[in-house]
């Protein structure tokens, strides 16, 4: 006897198909082509100059940093001030103006006198010479003749010039034949002028008419320092009286 079963015959369900793949992404559009500009062609001369600079040029040596000069200017200024002060202190003493007091004095000018005028760029001045001593002697005996150089008058050229002074360089006596009979032994500042002592000696008797040769340097004393001006030379200052030698 057949058994009846309550199970229904199986029904086969169809399988689901997989979803289709996504579409591929769109391809990027190509960028528009940019027209390349041609590079500028360098001038051959510029290239040569650059090349020479790199090949022949030498690098300058490194410079040391300069030190700040703090006291250099002060030191220089102090040195200049010291020189000016020293220059002023060492200036010669200005000779006073004495007029014709000594050129006409029987004591200072018993043998003779002389005056001379000078006019130069630094001013004008009048110099005087007074000659004194004994007018008689014996053969072989030395006598001293005094020659005093004074300033009679002076007018400086401007306010910066204060006055002049002199330094005697040569005082000598000659006879009429041009023979030197005496030369300056020494000179000094007498406060009224510069006086020179000249020893004179004769070897023959007679009356000698002498003349003096005088040379001196003139200095100009200024507000600061002094300057040598000129050399004054008196070639022939004749005595007023002869020297009698017995």
Structure write-up:
It is a single chain. This protein has 246 residues and is mainly beta. The protein has a domain at 112-245: Immunoglobulin-like. Helix content is 13%, strand content 39%. It has helices spanning 44-56, 72-89; strands at 112-120, 123-132, 136-137, 142-156, 161-174, 180-183, 186-189, 194-201, 206-208, 211-222, 226-238, 243-245. A 5-stranded antiparallel β-sheet has the order 1-2-4-8-7, with no helix packed on it. The longest helix has 18 residues, at 72-89. The radius of gyration is 57 Å and the shape is rod-shaped. The model is unreliable at 1-6 and 8-12 (pLDDT under 50).
Brief synopsis:
The protein is mainly beta and 246 residues long. It has helices at 44-56, 72-89; strands at 112-120, 123-132, 136-137, 142-156, 161-174, 180-183, 186-189, 194-201, 206-208, 211-222, 226-238, 243-245.
């Amino acid at each position: 006897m057949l058994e009846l079963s309550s199970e229904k015959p199986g029904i086969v369900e169809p399988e689901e198909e997989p979803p289709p793949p996504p579409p591929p992404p769109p391809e990027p559009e190509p960028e528009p082509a940019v027209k390349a500009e041609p590079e500028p062609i360098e001038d051959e001369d510029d290239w040569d100059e650059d090349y020479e600079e790199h090949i022949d040029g030498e690098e300058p040596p490194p410079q040391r940093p300069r030190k700040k000069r703090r006291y250099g200017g002060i030191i220089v200024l102090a040195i200049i001030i010291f020189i000016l002060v020293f220059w002023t202190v060492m200036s010669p003493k200005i000779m006073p103006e004495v007029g014709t007091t000594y050129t006409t004095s029987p004591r200072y000018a018993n043998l003779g006198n002389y005056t001379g005028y000078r006019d130069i760029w630094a001013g004008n001045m009048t110099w005087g010479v007074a000659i004194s001593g004994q007018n008689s002697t014996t053969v072989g005996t030395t006598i001293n003749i005094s020659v005093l150089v004074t300033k009679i008058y002076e007018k400086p050229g401007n306010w910066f010039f204060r006055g002049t002074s002199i330094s005697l360089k040569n005082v000598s006596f000659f006879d009429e034949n041009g023979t030197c009979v005496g030369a300056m032994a020494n000179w000094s500042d007498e406060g009224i002028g510069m006086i020179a002592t000249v020893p004179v000696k004769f070897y023959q008797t007679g009356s000698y008419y002498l003349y003096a040769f005088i040379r001196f340097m003139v200095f100009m004393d200024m507000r600061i320092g002094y300057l040598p001006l000129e050399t004054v030379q008196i070639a022939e200052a004749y005595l007023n009286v002869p020297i009698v030698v017995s």
